[in-house]
Structures are given as structure tokens and as C-alpha cells.
Design brief:
- The protein is an all-alpha fold.
- The chain has one domain.
- The chain is built from 21 helices and no strands.
- Helix 1 packs across helix 3, helix 11 packs across helix 13 and helix 20 runs antiparallel to helix 21.
Length: about 475
């Protein structure tokens, strides 16, 4: 595969993102659903790629020249490999330039969201593993690793699913990647649509104390285009372009974070190989992808910079832009290279996992959020619902609709939650080791451990944070 092919494949993705934005501007239904442009563009690429248009053209033409649709097989292969690389950028950016609050403040304000988020994540593991033991493996012959798919697809999202592609392959569950990407798509679409239904319900029932009625949402918010008179700077120049461009510098810091993560992971693989791995024939770290360690690398880099960077070179908004670019290209490339045939061959398990994931999040949100969050439960809980169904951005979007003027502590609590949530689940270490643990130790031990943790966070939220007066 030539560099020219790789470069042209990336250019095509950028062009498709522009087309996706145009489609979103032209179709009001997509604006009301608040679907991300990257997802829309990914669906368009999927439709005109090998899985839809390519199959139709191959069926009705005598040659296989159009089997990849409007693209080529090499370009689609490039797209298939991009998500596993881009997820490292997304996770490395999580904590670079992020000022950590005092632990007590973080726990007091973010604690209820932490408890609710972990409860929903562990519930997804418990239900997923139970479904695999009782239905998916006996009836459909699916790998026991399918027990982790709901959490990977729903809380983790497209990025996490893409990052675990190699892990799925290593454990002879290659179809798990396409199922996880499909579940991530179901998750983000259902998170937005069901979230908006819940917002309308809260507005009509007076559940929320801050809610702006959905009918009053501005055109700018719906289209995703900021009014010319309300536009703000998305980043600050911390260096002179005469020495090094600020964006270049920040990309360099992200690269250093990934490099730190890579050294950590390789070191753990080496230690495992010369200790218990060789003697017990038990290997875990060699199956863990790089992205959770890239996040740890970012935390280490931020700690070092907080002690040594007297010039304050890091601008958090610039890091956010780098992360946003990585996530947009990740989602569109993952969708464009999705195998619909794999999902079609496993349509029964896919539907079961999708419906189960949606029901878990809806029930736990409506039942537990009022019990765990003593004040502003809807404003704060809707963010946790959005993140547990789609991604963190879905939760942010729903909170901005419910509380556009930040009258509640929802945004602050949500930000504090990520510090103790993201490193572990939703793409963190636990998500990364879930499949190796299930395969190495078996579904039952992992189910027991997940159930214990589910009960622990449930009780923490209801009987500790739920009883506090804010």
C-alpha cells in the first residue's frame, strides 16, 4: 500500500465530512436529532462503499471492478486501520492541560455522578455476561467475549470499539469488532433520540428546575453553526510561529503522551513475560491495546508539566481541537469500513444486545438518578445517561439543552466524574482487560466480580451520596 493511497484515503474522509455537514444543514430531521456530522458522513461512506453500493454493482455487473463501490479496496483498507491509531490520540488528550481539583472537592461534587456512572457500566457487564451464558453462546455460538460488547459499544463508543479491534482478533472473535461498532452506532443514536424524549418529558412534567423547552432551542444549536457575532476563539497562541507553531507544539505533546504510554505498556508486557506469564502461562498485558496507556501517559505528562512548565505552554482548548479532529476522523473511518455482512450474520445477538443496552440505561437512569443525586437529579443524571448510552459528548449535549445557563452543578460534576471514570471504564483499563479476563478466567468469575462491584456502587450512590444534603 503506497503513501499516495494513504494520503488520498484521508483526503476523501475530509471531503466526506464536508458533504456530511452539508447534508445535516439541508435535512432538518438530522438537526433535531443532533446527530454528529462524522456519523452522518460515515453512513454516507458506508452506503456508497463496498457493503451497499459495491454489493449491488457486483450483483448486476459481470465484473468485480466495482466491488468497493465508489472507492477502491485499498482505500477501504486504509480506513479500516485508522480507528485503531486515532483512538490513541483521543485518549492521550483527555487530561493534558486539565487542572486537577482537590480530591475532596472532586469527590463531594462529582461523587453522585461517579457512583451512577459506574453502576450503569457494571450493570452492562452483568447483563451482557448473563445474556452470553444463557442465550448468545448456547443458541448462537458466540464467543464468551460477547459479554463485554454492551459496555464496549455503549459506554466506550466507536473509539473504544476500534481500539479493541486487535484484541477481538487475538481471541478469535473478529466479528466482535463489527458488532461493537454497530452497537456504538445504536448507542449514540438511541442516546440522542431517547435523551431528547426524556428532555421533552421532563419539560412537560416539571421534573427539571432549569430546563429550557426543546422547542426553544436556537437555530444555531440545531444546525451546529455558531452565529458570526457569537463566535469565540477556540484556542490561545502560547508560542510564536517564528519558533514553532502552537498547534505543532501541542501535537508534539500529544505524541509524547502516546510514547510514554507505549513504553509503559511494553514494560508491563516484558515484566509479565519473565514473571507469572511464563510460569503460569497467563498473559494479559500483551492483549491490552495502547489507548488506555496513552491516557495514562497524558496524565503523567500533565503532572510533569504542572511541576516544570513555568511558561504555561499548554492551552487546553487547542488540545480539545486536536482531540476533536481525531474523534471525527475516527468515527467516519470506523463507519465507512463497517462490515454489514458480519452484523447481518449475527443479527439475532445484535438485536438482543442493542435492546438490552438501551433498557438497562433507561431503567437505571429513571430509577437510580433521583435516589443517588439529592439535588438537580435530572440535570446531572441526563449527562450520565448520555455517556452510558452514547459517548461523553452525548452527555454534554443533553446537559447543555437541559441547563444552557449552567444554573446547576451538572457541568462541574460531569467534568469531575471523568477524572475517576474514564481511566477505568468506557475505554479505560477495565474495558481494555475485560475480554482477556473473560477468556483467561472464564465468564462466571468475571460475572461474580462485576455483580459485587455493581452492588457496591449502587449502595454507595443510594445510601451515601443520596442521603447527603447539598
Amino acid at each position: 500500500m503506497s503513501l499516495e493511497t494513504i494520503g488520498f484515503a484521508i483526503i476523501l474522509l475530509a471531503g466526506l465530512l464536508i458533504v456530511g455537514k452539508y447534508v445535516r444543514l439541508r435535512l432538518p430531521i438530522l438537526q433535531k436529532l443532533f446527530l454528529p456530522t462524522s456519523l452522518i458522513a460515515g453512513v454516507l461512506a458506508l452506503l456508497v462503499g463496498p457493503e451497499v453500493l459495491g454489493r449491488l454493482l457486483t450483483r448486476f455487473t459481470p465484473t468485480d471492478q466495482m466491488e468497493a463501490g465508489l472507492f477502491t479496496t485499498e482505500i477501504v483498507d486504509v480506513w479500516a486501520g485508522l480507528p485503531g491509531l486515532l483512538i490513541n490520540i483521543v485518549f492521550a488528550c483527555l487530561f493534558i492541560g486539565f487542572t486537577l481539583p482537590k480530591p475532596k472537592t472532586m469527590w463531594t461534587i462529582g461523587g453522585p455522578s461517579i457512583a451512577l456512572g459506574y453502576t450503569m457500566s457494571w450493570a452492562q457487564y452483568v447483563v451482557g455476561i448473563l445474556l452470553t451464558i444463557t442465550i448468545l453462546t448456547p443458541l448462537f455460538g458466540l464467543s464468551p467475549a460477547a459479554g463485554a460488547l454492551i459496555e464496549i459499544g455503549f459506554v466506550g463508543g466507536h473509539g473504544t470499539a476500534a481500539g479493541l479491534q486487535g484484541t477481538f482478533t487475538e481471541f478469535d472473535f473478529a466479528e466482535g469488532y463489527d458488532l461493537a461498532i454497530g452497537l456504538a452506532t445504536v448507542g449514540i443514536v438511541s442516546g440522542i433520540t431517547i435523551g431528547m424524549v426524556l428532555v421533552n418529558w421532563a419539560a412537560r412534567k416539571g421534573v427539571s428546575k432549569t430546563l429550557k423547552h426543546p422547542d426553544d432551542i436556537s437555530i444555531e444549536q440545531q444546525t451546529g453553526v455558531i452565529d458570526v457575532n457569537q463566535r469565540e476563539r477556540s484556542g490561545t497562541m502560547t508560542t510564536s510561529p517564528m519558533s514553532i507553531d502552537t498547534l505543532t507544539l501541542h501535537i508534539g505533546f500529544v505524541a509524547i503522551a502516546i510514547l510514554i504510554g507505549y513504553v509503559l505498556l511494553e514494560g508491563l508486557v516484558w515484566v509479565e513475560a519473565i514473571t507469572y506469564g511464563n510460569s503460569m502461562n497467563l498473559y494479559l498485558f500483551e492483549y491490552i491495546p495502547l489507548f488506555p496507556f496513552a491516557m495514562i501517559g497524558g496524565i503523567i505528562l500533565q503532572f510533569i508539566l504542572s511541576k516544570t512548565d513555568k511558561h504555561q505552554l499548554i492551552d487546553r482548548e487547542t488540545i480539545n481541537r486536536i482531540q476533536g479532529v481525531g474523534l471525527d476522523f475516527l468515527i467516519i473511518s470506523a463507519m465507512a469500513s463497517l462490515s454489514l455482512a458480519t452484523i447481518g450474520n449475527n443479527i439475532g445477538p445484535f438485536i438482543i444486545l442493542s435492546v438490552s443496552g438501551i433498557l438497562i440505561n433507561m431503567i437505571l437512569f429513571l430509577y437510580l438518578a433521583p435516589k443517588m443525586i439529592p439535588k438537580y437529579w435530572f440535570e446531572r443524571g441526563i449527562g450520565d445517561f448520555g455517556q452510558s448510552t452514547g459517548v461523553a459528548a452525548t452527555g454534554l449535549m443533553l446537559m447543555r439543552i437541559v441547563d444552557p445557563e449552567n444554573k446547576s452543578p451538572a457541568m462541574t460534576a460531569y467534568g469531575y466524574k471523568q477524572i475517576l471514570f474514564e481511566p477505568m471504564v468506557g475505554g479505560g483499563l477495565i474495558t481494555a482487560v475485560a475480554i482477556p479476563f473473560i477468556i483467561q478466567f472464564g465468564s462466571i468469575p468475571v460475572l461474580i466480580a462485576s455483580t459485587i462491584l455493581l452492588i457496591a456502587f449502587w449502595c454507595l450512590g443510594v445510601f451515601y451520596f443520596g442521603k447527603k444534603k447539598e
